[in-house]
Amino acid sequence: MEERESTRSAWRSGRRADGKQALIAAAALATAICAAPAWGQSPPAVDVAAWPALPPQPPTDPKHEAFVDGLLSKMSVEEKVGQLIQADIATIRPEDIARYPLGSILNGGDSSPDMAARVPAPEWLKLADAFYAAARERKGTYVPLMWGIDAVHGQNKIIGATIFPHNIGLGATRDPALIEKIGEITAQEVTVTGQDWVFAPTVAVARDDHWGRTYESYSEDPAIVATSAAALIKGLQGEVGTPDFLGAGHVIATAKHFLGDGGTNGGKDQGDTLASEVDLIAIHAPGYVAALKAGVQTIMASYSSWRGLKMHADRALLTDVLKGRMGFAGFIVGDWNGHEQVPGCTKSDCPIATNAGVDMLMAPDGWRDLFAAMVREVKDGTIPTARLDDAVRRVLAVKVRAGLFEKPRPSARPFAGKFDLLGAPEHRAVARQAVRESLVLLKNAGSVLPLKPGRRILVAGDAADDIGRQSGGWTLSWQGTGNLNGDFPHGQSIYAGIEEAVGAGGGTVHLSPKGEFQDSPDGKPDAAIVVIGERPYAEMKGDLVTTSWSAMHPEDLALLKRLNAAGIPVVTVFLSGRPLWVDPELDASDAFVAAWLPGTEGGGIADLLFEKPDGSRPYDFRGTLSFSWPRVADQVVNVGDVPYEPRFPVGYGLTLGGAPAAQGATP
Ligand code: GLC
Predict the structure, then answer these.
(1) What is the pLDDT, as a whole number, of residue 663?
(2) For the residues 438-454, what does the mean pLDDT come to?
(3) Which of 203, 217, 336 is the pocket-test mutation for ligand 1 (most atoms within 8 Å of CB)?
(4) I want to staple 597 with a disulfide (CB 3.0 to 4.6 A). Which of 139, 166, 461, 570 is the partner?
(5) Residue 73 has pLDDT above 80, yes or no
(6) For residue 642, is pLDDT > 60?
(7) For 524-534, what is the mean pLDDT?
């Protein structure tokens, strides 16, 4: 899959694929074909009656239906096909809409207006207006565009936005009300810059921590995923059935990636999920049931396969189960050229995916040729008219429900252009609360925590003063790399938060990533806070061959041991997108905090590490693991296993007093 990634990352950085890239893409396609069932092999059998049955979701509205019928009757084949294709802003310009009546655009993780790096917020809103105008001015039947963006932990592509903890940390909060609030704030900050659709929440149930997208999952426990995802959708879209639903300041949400993306063999991104149908239903489906009940409007198909069949081609699961049995009345969007991985398909020609039930193809770069191919395939019957009209009806219905036909240009909508909402103090306060509630205290020997702020504190570790590192992937860039603290005008590093807390207490702080200190009576630190952990990554770039941290980064264990040997109490703050095997690091620490990927509010960590100068403790640890922590390197262990023998179980977490963290403690 590496070949595929280099093609994709080349594309995401806006470089056109050259001959070499085309060769790489061909190799990737060959890989995909090999992963497919052998030609003629029948797809895995599905017992539709075994799946959860739900009434049509979102509920249909006769007014909307009539409006959609009227539109459909006026639309040409080209206009209908256009609604089923989504292009990336790296390759489409507003002026292209006149000829290509596409229904949607997106910006992939590395795409931005004019493909510039660090584009200021007003430029995003300007581009949204330009595309809106292009759709308005096009001759023919007017259908508004939808602009999709990966706002997966806040409006994370935009400079100044509030960046929340990634889902793995939110799962540890067990606080749906907080997650709903995060959804509301995210939706508001998205509308500030003119987008109307977010590709969130991920409802993956990650079952193997080698997977590079584990941090996008709330939990290995489907019940935690279901509760958390429903809360985020409610915050993003508003409560289904109320006047607030898809109203001002709300956006269209996406449950992704259907189905079984977190269950692939070996945790390989875009790999093959071999689970039985019973386990697919019990483990990977509950998040979608909750999302449907919360009124989610779109669902994204997964790159992964189920038992050898690519999800983008799995008609039984996409159409018979999701749209039929489970009553999904929104639309299914494909993943980024996900259709290309279907045997017999290319990025610009894939009737198999459309006929299987993918309603809108995410075609970042092949959209022109795909448009021509789909028009041809509708006219020659390869894509039946009934399938075309069903897909278009679904897309139009979502646009009608979201009020897009009535809404004015993006910059005239509520919250649009109110750039001071990006990283507003009240938004940051919620993010800081989320950081506090997400932290899980795994060890606190001798009650070394909380620390007194009036002491001499050494802050060590190469992740201590790096807002990009503490935010992880999907932050300003696709991989979350290349970011400097200056790129986060409304952020605070973990070190800066500690400096603030200690300063208030009259203590002293010394920052030394390598942990150097004066070994003298008045130089030796009273305690060392060592911030270490994973560097940012996204998707397949994060797949691991081992989960042993000391095997990957022995330098961190050496640092902990050296401080420990000097008799300095060591508090380790571990940044990771997943549980990793850290027994040696735990042994070399007096206290150990699983901090996940906390986002821009690094101060939330100091809130829990220090008591106040007056000795009060306004906050306590309340986070509990939503993932099992491994006992040995590369152990794949999940709640429900028999026997179940993790190092720390789901639900584990200490308070400062040493008692188990009770949910509902001081947030
Ligand atoms: C990516 C991801 C998906 C994301 C999409 C658009 O490949 O799989 O989660 O929403 O492309 O960026």
Answers:
(1) 60
(2) 97
(3) 336
(4) 166
(5) yes
(6) yes
(7) 97
- Counting ligand 1 atoms within 8 A of each CB, the residue from 9, 110, 152, 335 with the most, and so the one to mutate, is 335
CA distances from 119 to 3, 112, 536 (A): 29, 7, 21
pLDDT at 117: 84
For residue 604, the SS3 value is helix
Of 319, 326, 375, 380, nearest to 349 by C-alpha is 375
CA distances from 181 to 164, 224, 225, 420, 515 (A): 11, 17, 17, 18, 38
Residue 269 falls in the annotated catalytic set: no
61 flagged as catalytic: no
- pLDDT value for 41: 53
* pTM of the predicted protein model: 0.94
- pLDDT band, residue 454 (cuts 50/70/90): very high
CA of 525 to the centre of ligand 1 (A): 45
- Kindly indicate whether the domain formed by 439-609 is annotated with CATH number 3.30.1490.20: no
CA 570/CA 591 separation, integer angstroms? 7
Report the pLDDT value the prediction gives residue 60, as an integer from 0 to 100.
81
Domain limits, the chain: 36-420, 439-609
Structure tokens at 333: 């969007």
pLDDT band of residue 235 (cuts 50, 70, 90) is very high
Task: At 548, list the tokens.
Answer: 């042993």
Tokens representing residue 216 in the block:
């996008």
- Find the 353 Cα to ligand 1 centroid distance in Å: 17
What residue ranges in 115-183 does DSSP mark as E strands?
Answer: 146-149
The residues near 667 (Cβ < 8 Å, ≥ 6 apart) are 175, 178, 433, 436, 437, 619, 622
User: Which one of 209, 216, 261, 539 is the catalytic residue?
Assistant: 539
Residue 303 Cα: closest atom of ligand 1: 8
Backbone angles phi, psi at 499, to 5 degrees: -60, -40
- Say if residues 202 and 257 touch (Cβ distance below 8 Å): yes
Instruction: List, chain by chain if needed, residues with CB within 6 Å of any ligand 1 atom.
Output: 106, 108-109, 150, 199, 256, 335-336, 539
pLDDT of residue 275: 97
Residue nearest to atom 8 of ligand 1 (CA): 335
Q: How confident is the model at residue 58 (pLDDT cuts 50, 70, 90)?
A: confident
Closest atom of ligand 1 to 216 CA is 9
CATH number 1.10.285.10 is the correct assignment for the domain at 36-420 = no
